[in-house]
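Input.
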Amino acid sequence: MMLAHFCTHKYCPFRDWEKTKQAADRAADPYQAQLDAWKKDGGIRPAKRPDGVPTRIDMNWLTAAELATREAVNAVEKAGASPALTDAVTLLCKARDRIADHVEGKE
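Output.
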């Protein structure tokens, strides 16, 4: 455990050092650096993470609209089984894909 976790002093130099080290570690990680750059600048989301995984399946990369459609799908699925609800889930999934296409600039 870090010394900063035990120090109760308001202006602890170890606490500042820990924050600086975490920021440097985050900047050195290609995944975190690309995610931070996209969140800071906004605009078109890259289609793939630095490791090649599509960003549309990573919860950290989802926009508020994508998260809302995901929650809507979960709510409809909890409602029960019905052909009408299956159609609703299908439409919501298509909407989620269209939102992801828009965010990635593939309109």
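The radius of gyration is 20 Å.
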